[in-house]
Amino acid sequence: MRAKRSAEPSPEAIARSNRQRLAAEEGARAMADAEKQAVDVRKNMARLRELREAKEAAEAVLQASLPVPAKAKRNKKLPR
Length: 80
Prior knowledge:
Structural class: mainly alpha
Strand content: under 5%
Low-confidence stretches: none
Shape: rod-shaped
Number of strands: 0
Order of helices and strands: H
């Protein structure tokens, strides 16, 4: 009383498998693009960090070479 399955898939099954295959390919492409973008972002962050650290080091050298400003004496407040 069981219906035997035919050896050939139905048109709906073929369409479903094509949709699944296309979705899997598109998903793999999207993941590869996301990974590439993440790598690019990390490279740019490293480049910017190096530039910032170099600038901070140059500013520290400049500050060390400048004379220390003398502290100004506070004037006494005048009584009212």
